[in-house]
Design goal:
268 residues; mainly alpha; transmembrane; Nitrate/nitrite sensing protein domain-containing protein; transmembrane helix
């Protein structure tokens, strides 16, 4: 009888261990999938911002590209809501509303307004990714990774805010006040990028970003240095991509430490 009871207890313990293991695996998988969807939405939002900005500033025809991007944004945001936990659905619906707002009537917006709306949606997306990642780190009892991630995250956000200010100042770069603002944000952004180089050296050392940093220095130090608006906007797009690569590398490193590596982004 004692042997039977011992066996039943052992089987019960093994069953509980298996149950909790499956529960943990399910939680990890859910957070992993949320990050993948949010990461894709972030990339698509950046692509939409670039396409609409070129259309507004330079009159480029981007109808087919924008239609494709908007279809993907709808599809991915719907999938995000459908697969998220019940308690999390409202905040993902708010993100979807912001994405719909930036897609509607963008032709009637000023360049600065278009930048601001896209910037808000992109930052909202990043804050949701940050929330998922921090919860993941807390549940995994990885305070060491959590502290490092938080410091790096703050540098990424600061760099993005500075880049947004630089983008906005491009529209008035030929006025005296606008030129002064532009030079100020060129210097500030260059210093932010140097800080990001400590997090992900390869992202900041890319040829496009290295060239951008050189031009940022020229613009700050030489008031007579002239550059077309179109070229300057392309520079900010190159910098934006580099900052996105830094954050993506952060996510990939943490995801690999906690679970499995993130997949490659699906290019639109």
């Amino acid at each position: 009888m004692f042997v039977i009871i011992s066996m039943l207890i052992s089987i019960g313990i093994l069953g509980l261990m298996f149950y909790f293991s499956k529960q943990r695996e399910s939680t990890l998988q859910r957070k992993y999938e949320l990050l993948i969807d949010l990461r894709q939405l972030l990339y698509l939002s950046r692509q939409h911002r670039s396409a609409t900005h070129h259309a507004l500033m330079f009159g480029e025809k981007r109808e087919a590209e924008l239609s494709h991007l908007q279809d993907l944004l709808h599809e991915k945001s719907n999938h995000l809501i459908s697969t998220s936990h019940f308690d999390s659905k409202p905040m993902y619906r708010v993100l979807q509303l912001k994405l719909k707002a930036l897609m509607n009537n963008w032709q009637d917006r000023s360049i600065a307004r278009n930048q601001m709306m896209h910037g808000k949606a992109i930052r909202h997306c990043m804050f949701l990714m940050d929330e998922v990642m921090l919860a993941w780190l807390v549940e995994s009892n990885r305070e060491d990774l959590s502290e490092e991630y938080h410091m790096n995250w703050q540098q990424v956000i600061d760099s993005m805010d500075t880049l947004t200010q630089l983008r906005i100042s491009i529209e008035d770069m030929h006025t005296q006040d606008g030129s002064a603002r532009l030079r100020h944000y060129c210097d500030l952004l260059r210093r932010k990028l140097n800080q990001l180089a400590l997090i992900s050296p390869l992202s900041i050392a890319s040829p496009a970003c290295s060239k951008a940093m050189h031009i940022l220095s020229e613009l700050h130090e030489n008031p007579a240095f002239d550059i077309p608006q179109e070229q300057l906007y392309q520079l900010t797009s190159d910098v934006s991509l580099s900052i996105a690569h830094v954050y993506d590398q952060m996510l990939a490193d943490v995801s690999e430490s906690l679970y499995i590596p993130l997949p490659k982004l699906v290019v639109a």
